């Protein structure tokens, strides 16, 4: 194989094999540090030997075997090997198998270890991206706009806390899945959101993070195919990511859903997302839909509308109403208010949005939504002030550019209207 072919083989193997190798090593040796370093050394060995010796017939097997040997070599070199083995017993569960219903998969064990409730949410996200996504510490640090040393400390502290708390690395029980899966899904969704519209920085969209989140979503769906919220999250991410190519203009400005060029939406992702929603709706004893299923359904309404004006806003408003019963957060109520405005007009939207002012005063999207409703209601001065507030709070450059253009457009229109007024009077 040529150089580029070998490089592509290593990259593909890293994408497909990193998480299973890490998970298998943690199961065998019970130590996150040993697993991570051995896997990294195995891939470094591949980068050195495969260009010379050729890509092996079974790259995954080669990497797994090499990583296992690296882990054993490291443990043999440890001066306190016995202590390390005792420490490993703290996180390795040799108990009897869990009752039927839990999923026997090393990667699922690792997901539940990374997303253990003993860890802060930021640590769960970082650890998940490092151990399951295979992202470098530097890449994770850049994604969340912190120093690499800061992110390294965060990941180290998370591992130390898992070790100190004696978090068992085992097949999640039925109870674990029921109680902890919502937190796992939130971590994956946070990763996706940070990629789809970064909170700050020069890159408005991070395809590497959205791709990792979708990959994790696919993995969870493979492992837990009967869970409605897992299916809903994957469908939601696919339907949202389908619009990525239309999300930012060539000049780097955010393009709102109503203004996007729908011809560049990824129809394959949309079809896959809608198929998942239909699959769930046909499930026997599916039960009431949860948060991610309702969000997926809302995005499906937008996805099937050929034009923005064809959107069935009444259905969107009703779905947000159902979502507010499941998740009565101010942000859900804000989104419902925007949908209500599309059905009943901007005055109705402003009425619905008014009670949220206190809770969402520091949230730029609240002021952006309010500015748009005020603009549509003809309350120009108030709209400009709301745009200024939104621009001041927004961290994403694409959003800032969009909001600035909208505010300045209103100023131009107001100036033109004032200039035309004397002429209109003269012509009476």
Description of the structure:
The protein is mainly alpha-helical and 428 residues long. 70% of the residues lie in helices and 0% in strands. The chain has 19 helices and no strands. The protein has helices at residues 3-29, 32-53, 59-77, 81-91, 106-114, 121-131, 137-143, 148-165, 174-196, 207-223, 228-241, 267-281, 291-304, 313-326, 330-344, 346-353, 364-376, 380-393, 397-426. It starts with a helix and ends with a helix.
The general outline is elongated
Contiguous uncertain segments of 5+ residues = 89-103, 415-419, 421-428
Helix count? 19
Helix residue percentage: over 70%
Observed structural traits:
428 residues; disordered C terminus; mainly alpha
SSE map:
Layout: H1 3-29, H2 32-53, H3 59-77, H4 81-91, H5 106-114, H6 121-131, H7 137-143, H8 148-165, H9 174-196, H10 207-223, H11 228-241, H12 267-281, H13 291-304, H14 313-326, H15 330-344, H16 346-353, H17 364-376, H18 380-393, H19 397-426
Helix pairs in contact: 1-2, 1-3, 1-5, 2-3, 6-8, 6-9, 7-8, 9-10, 9-11, 10-11, 11-12, 11-13, 12-13, 13-14, 14-15, 15-16, 16-17, 17-18, 18-19
């Amino acid at each position: 194989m040529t150089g580029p072919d070998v490089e592509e083989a290593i990259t593909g193997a890293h994408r497909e094999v990193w998480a299973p190798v890490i998970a298998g090593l943690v199961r065998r040796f019970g130590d996150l540090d040993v697993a991570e370093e051995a896997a990294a050394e195995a891939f470094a060995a591949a980068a050195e030997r495969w260009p010379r010796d050729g890509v092996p017939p079974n790259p995954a097997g080669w990497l797994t075997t090499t990583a296992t040997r690296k882990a054993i070599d490291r443990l043999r070199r440890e001066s306190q090997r016995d202590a390390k083995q005792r420490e490993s017993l703290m996180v390795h569960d040799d108990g009897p198998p869990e009752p039927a219903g839990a999923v026997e998969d090393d990667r699922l064990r690792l997901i539940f270890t990374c997303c253990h409730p003993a860890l802060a949410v930021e640590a769960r996200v970082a650890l998940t991206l490092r151990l399951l996504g295979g992202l470098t510490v530097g890449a994770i640090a850049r994604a969340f706009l912190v120093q690499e040393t800061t992110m390294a400390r965060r990941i180290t502290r998370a591992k130390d806390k898992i070790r100190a708390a004696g978090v068992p690395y085992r097949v999640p029980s039925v109870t674990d899945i029921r109680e902890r899966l919502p937190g796992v899904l939130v971590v994956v969704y946070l990763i996706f959101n940070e990629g789809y519209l970064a909170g700050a920085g020069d890159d408005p969209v991070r395809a590497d993070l959205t791709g990792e989140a979708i990959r994790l979503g696919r993995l969870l769906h493979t492992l837990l195919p009967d869970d409605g919220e897992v299916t809903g999250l994957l469908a939601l991410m696919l339907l949202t990511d389908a619009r990525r190519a239309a999300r930012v203009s060539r000049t780097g400005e955010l393009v709102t859903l109503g203004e996007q060029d729908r011809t560049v939406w990824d129809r394959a992702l949309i079809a896959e997302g809608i198929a998942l929603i239909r699959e769930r709706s046909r499930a026997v004893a599916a039960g009431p839909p949860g948060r991610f299923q309702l969000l997926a359904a809302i995005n499906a309404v937008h996805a099937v509308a050929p034009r923005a004006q064809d959107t069935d806003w009444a259905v969107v408003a009703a779905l947000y109403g159902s979502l507010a019963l499941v998740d009565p957060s101010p942000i859900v109520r804000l989104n419902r208010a925007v949908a209500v405005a599309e059905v009943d007009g901007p005055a109705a939207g402003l009425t619905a949005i008014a009670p949220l002012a206190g809770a969402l005063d520091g949230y730029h999207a609240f002021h952006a939504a309010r500015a748009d409703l005020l603009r549509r209601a003809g309350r120009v001065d108030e709209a400009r002030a709301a745009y200024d507030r939104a621009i001041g709070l927004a961290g994403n450059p694409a959003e800032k550019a969009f909001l600035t253009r909208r505010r300045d457009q209103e100023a131009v229109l107001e100036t033109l209207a004032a200039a035309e007024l004397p002429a209109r009077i003269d012509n009476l």
